[in-house]
């Protein structure tokens, strides 16, 4: 009987220990403490948290990083303000700087400009976490690589390329076009190196805007927009009155002018502008004057030689 009691007591004791161990495994929370570098310590400090909150940090939290959804290539027009957008997440107490790769010059730190060239400015948009580098009146020499840098240890950077282009406007066949009376005038204006197509292309004739609904009729324009924008000015049944200066003026690029000559049986070589004709006459006159002076000089020299009898004499200095 005693043996039975002892066995029962021992069994109850073991059951109690087992029950206690099982309750510990169920009731005590199982926590995982990730490595220190997973924490986003730049946005908060551990001293601001209670002891119970330190263990529930999200292991996916991290320090500042770049949002790379924006384009790394920026094209700007000469003279038009350029923006290089750098979007930084979880910046915390870090600082964003802009550095020019060409000479490793620090342009901005935070919101302050760190260069004597005041065309460079830092613009911060808190709603988007954007730290933009603003470049006023950009020139082709400003083209190159710029780096947005975060003051971590070690620093991390995100490079962007700025291309400052000057648009080029040309008219095919210019600067002079010769058209036969009754044929169709086709003026083709091409605009290159624009970050986006010009909103408007204006055509003028002798300084006046062309009216496509005029009683003359037969005048139309077709514009194709894209990386290269092309505008076609078509004038049907050309008349001599259609001669003159035609200018293609894109709203975001330089204008270009072409001289149109509508021929009425003349030869193109016989048509010259006033200044060109005057220049040709002056040049011809100068040539005739030079030939006349040379002729007179040769005649005078021949006369002097025949009257002297002895011709030219040479003397030597000893």
Helix-strand layout with pairing:
Blueprint: H1 2-27, H2 51-54, E1 65-66, E2 73-77, E3 82-89, E4 96-100, E5 105-109, E6 112-113, E7 120-125, E8 130-135, E9 144-150, E10 156-165, E11 168-171, E12 176-180, E13 185-192, E14 201-205, E15 208-209, E16 219-224, E17 229-235, E18 244-250, E19 256-263, H3 274-308
Parallel strand pairs: 2-10, 12-19
Antiparallel strand pairs: 1-3, 3-8, 4-5, 4-9, 5-6, 7-8, 9-10, 11-13, 13-17, 14-15, 14-18, 16-17, 18-19
Any overview of this molecule?
The protein is α+β, with helices and mostly antiparallel strands and about 325 residues long. It contains 3 helices and 19 strands. The strands form 4 sheets. It has a 6-stranded mixed sheet, with no helix packed on it. The radius of gyration is 43 Å and the shape is elongated. Residues about 1-60, about 270-280 and about 305-318 have low confidence and may be disordered.
- Which percent range fits the helix content? 10-25%
> What is the radius of gyration computed over CA atoms, rounded to a whole number of angstroms?
43 Å
Structural class by sheet pairing and helices: alpha+beta
- Provide the spatial order of strands within the biggest beta sheet: 2-10-9-4-5-6
Largest sheet: 6 strands, mixed
Q: Total number of β-strand segments?
A: 19
Ranges where pLDDT stays below 50 over 5 or more residues in a row are: 1-60, 270-282, 304-318
Hey, roughly how much beta strand do the residues contain? 25-35%
Summed over residues and divided by their number, the pLDDT gives a mean of 74
The run of helices and strands is: HHEEEEEEEEEEEEEEEEEEEH
Secondary structure tally, helices: 3
Specify the overall morphology.
Answer: elongated
First-last Cα distance? 162 Å
